[in-house]
Request: fold
Amino acid sequence: MTFETTKTHVVHRGTLRYLKHDSETTGTPMTLSVFVPGGEGPFPVLIWLSGLTCTEDNFTTKAGAYRAAAEQGVIIVAPDTSPRGEGVADDPAYDLGQGAGFYVDATEAPWAAHFRMESYVTDELIRLIDGEFPTTGVRAISGHSMGGHGALTLALKHPALFRSVSAFAPIVSPSVVPWGEKAFSAYLGDDRAVWDRHDAAKLMASGAAKGVYDDILIDQGDADSFLADQLKPELLQAAADAAGQKVTIRMQPGYDHSYFFMASFIADHVAFHARRLKG
Reply:
């Protein structure tokens, strides 16, 4: 097995594994968790992408997703958010460097050597999971905040890979908000036309993957402190309306940006994907 298992737990009659492997894409060790429901399978796969400062452990321990995954018969894969380790570029700030990969392939020094998270998720990770777990070869993608940005953009850029996509509190247009402007200028350089290729609202407006997804589910808390300055879901709605793409954005009253919010609605997202993964 390519993966080294570092921990194993039984949960809801399924098996949760924490795994580690040497990535050919990032040139570093990468960590992830994989939940496999009980039974022989095969099962479809939901890839979860986490947000700034997170590792694979945040979703795994806080989202409460595995009861729904067991009931729906869905594997859930949660990779780390960036390469890490000695010799890997980093920044003292929480929103750049290790823990803040933004799911792009960096082109600028010193990041380009290891920060290749788009290729890691859409190529190496999928190949390894399909090769070593009982999957149907059909998958969906979801995520939170920076990971919501990743889920949306990777689904729009690689529609052949994913049957469905959803997000919690995604950064829908990173090219026009502080988090994204900082990360994209560091990882991708100063050409904003390049940034647009990693911006869900811009991709949506251009007609990317039009007709591929019957709906895109997004939950957003209206008490999220990042809503107005960093997330701006109205930009994605406007782009979807212009492109004729159905997007369901549910504004949830009183909810913030935390995993308490995700734990409250994760079962809806697992069911949303299960219907499309098995349809």
Observations:
- The radius of gyration is 17 Å.
- The mean pLDDT is 97.
- Residues 104 and 123 are 13 Å apart (CA to CA).
- The longest strand covers residues 14-22.
